[in-house]
Structure formats: structure tokens, C-alpha cells
Design goal:
By secondary structure, the protein is α/β, with parallel strands linked by helices. It is built from twelve helices and ten strands.
């Protein structure tokens, strides 16, 4: 399959509700706090719950940080935002960070947000498609240029699949029993269920493509402000740990920022994040929260090389650091 790379234009949708959000500059001191910005990869949602939990409960302020969360969307290129200094931290996948580093962007992941990737392909519960090889010959709604789908196609030799552009909606899925689309296990199945349709999600992690969802910054920012990075990681992981126990406060703030959400949807996402081990992993007690395994990074790097998504070899360890993960 021809390699395609998504180069989305950088558009920012800035919410300014209850004074929680705003576009700020690093190290601009106000009330004794260091102002920093976190660029999200999507609109406010439970998949960002730990960050909002830390924000509204004051965990960042306790660390001396004045954090703003900048919403993302389908056309916001988070790595470019962080590389350009429009935000000090960003959300994304470890595969995305490796690609960016190989392209010369000075990014470095500092902690994992999700241990498992909830990305996958959604079919109806009674669909004859039970595994990825069964997708052969079918049309699938996918965001153009998705690296994870290139991996699925190559691994299972799905040269007979037909890609159609994703609509970021379940409307077509509800109308057409044969419709197949990309989905997050924590989101789209809820909307299908609301329409009376039960689903299954074939997770990319089950196929061996399992990037971390990470929080990242630039290598220069790590070198110049290691104390700020340490404080950000510590407060963020504290926020995530508490969010998994009780999402009430954070979800109320998220709902204000994104009126399209409702409490039932947010509870579904929170339950899926917790029960699926997406955030804290499978070990009891949440020992994996935030942690990153060098072997996982090396595997992801080799997969990207094999796909020729990365053409210029790099040292995969240059795309992440573990130095802030003992500071929880």
C-alpha cells in the first residue's frame, strides 16, 4: 500500500470556560506559578480525564504550575505545535513521536498516558468478521494515512480492502449493517449502543501494534527545565490515579468545556478506560501507571521501519526518557 502521511493544517479551537483554558507562554510568571500549555490531541473528553482531574483539583498549582489545556481536533498537528513552542507539552502516540523524531522534530516522551491503545476497527456484534484477516474484500472507514492501518494491511496481507474516509461519526454504521469503521473502544461503541446496536472492536494491540499514548515535550525543554517537566509528570500521574477511582469532579469540568458530552457517555468511557486496563495496565495496584518499557519502544520502532514510515534510522531511545517516572 502506498505510504501516506497526514500533514494536517494547524487549526486551534480554544475554549475559555471557567478560566480553565487559554493560550499561554512558558515561564511567564504569574502569582508565583510557572505557566505552561498542554496541547490535547482531541476535544475535551474522558480520555483526557487525568489531566483535567489534576487541573481542577489543583494538583498542578500545588507543584507551582499554572497549566492550560489547549483542545485538539482532527486537523490539529500536536507534534508540530509542541516543536514550534505553541505548547510546552502534547498528547499523542509513541508511534507518532517516533515518526516526528525521525523527521527531525526534537520531541521526547516523558510518561505514558495509556498503557494500551484503544484504537481499533468496529463491527456489529453479529458480524461474521471475527478477526483481522476477515476484513479482506471489505470497505473500511479509516482516517487517511493511518499508520496503524498500514500495519494491519501489511501483517494480514489485506490487499483487497477498500479504504473510505472516516467521518468521525457512527451515523453510517447505524444505517448500514455492513459498515465497518475505525473506532476507539472507549467511545464509538457507546453511540452505537445508544442506537440499539451492540458492537465488537478489533483492537490494534491484539494484532501486535500497540503504541503507548504519551505526554511529550521537546528535548530542549527537558534540558532547560527538568524541574518543570518533573512537576508536570508528577501532577499528571496523580490526576490519572485519582481519576480512575472517582471521575466525578473531572467529568463535570469536561462537560462544561465540551457540551456535546453527556454524563452517560462519559461514564461509559471512564468505565472502559478502567476496566480495559488502558490507563494503568494489567498489573494490580496500578504499578504500570505512567511507565514505559524500552522493549515496547524498540518494537514500535522496528514496526515503523518495516512499514517504511520511518526511512531515516534513529536510536529509538532518543524519542523518550524514563528519568521522570520515579518521581510519582
Amino acid at each position: 500500500m502506498r505510504k501516506r502521511r497526514f500533514k494536517g493544517a494547524i487549526f486551534l479551537l480554544v475554549f475559555a470556560i471557567d478560566g480553565l483554558l487559554g493560550c499561554r507562554q512558558s515561564e511567564n510568571q504569574g502569582a508565583g506559578l510557572t505557566k505552561i500549555t498542554l496541547q490535547a490531541d482531541w476535544y475535551p473528553q474522558p480520555e483526557h480525564g487525568g489531566f483535567y482531574n489534576a487541573l481542577v483539583k489543583g494538583y498542578y498549582k500545588e507543584e507551582g504550575l499554572d497549566l492550560s489545556i489547549q483542545p485538539g481536533g482532527p486537523y490539529v498537528a500536536v507534534p508540530q505545535q509542541v516543536s514550534a513552542g505553541a505548547a510546552q507539552f502534547g498528547m499523542g502516540g509513541s508511534d507518532q513521536v517516533l515518526e516526528a523524531v525521525a523527521d527531525g522534530q526534537p520531541l521526547v516522551a516523558v510518561a505514558a498516558t495509556l498503557q494500551r491503545d484503544p484504537q481499533g476497527i468496529m463491527v456489529r456484534k453479529d458480524s461474521p468478521i471475527r478477526a483481522f484477516p476477515d476484513l479482506q474484500g471489505h470497505a473500511i472507514a479509516i482516517k487517511p494515512g493511518s499508520t496503524w492501518f498500514e500495519y494491519i494491511v501489511k501483517r494480514y496481507q489485506l490487499n483487497g480492502v477498500h479504504e473510505i474516509p472516516a467521518t468521525f461519526s457512527v451515523a453510517n454504521f447505524v444505517k448500514d449493517p455492513e459498515y465497518i469503521q475505525q473506532a476507539f473502544a472507549t467511545s464509538e461503541p457507546f453511540f452505537a449502543r445508544q442506537a440499539g446496536i451492540e458492537t465488537r472492536v478489533l483492537l490494534t494491540s491484539e494484532a501486535g501494534y500497540n503504541p503507548y499514548r504519551v505526554m511529550f515535550t521537546t528535548r530542549g525543554f527537558v534540558q532547560q527545565h527538568p524541574d518543570v517537566v518533573a512537576k508536570f509528570v508528577r501532577a499528571s500521574l496523580r490526576g490519572w490515579r485519582d481519576y480512575l477511582s472517582d471521575p466525578t469532579t473531572a467529568n463535570a469540568a469536561i462537560a462544561k468545556l465540551n457540551p456535546a458530552l453527556n454524563q452517560e457517555w462519559m461514564h461509559f468511557s471512564w468505565q472502559a478506560l478502567r476496566d480495559g486496563g488502558f490507563v494503568a495496565g494489567d498489573e494490580p495496584g496500578g504499578a504500570q501507571l505512567g511507565q514505559m518499557d524500552p522493549a515496547r519502544w524498540a518494537t514500535m520502532y522496528q514496526q515503523l521501519l518495516g512499514l517504511k514510515v520511518i526511512e531515516k534510522p534513529i536510536e529509538p531511545a532518543s524519542a523518550y526518557t524514563l528519568q521522570f517516572l520515579q518521581l510519582k
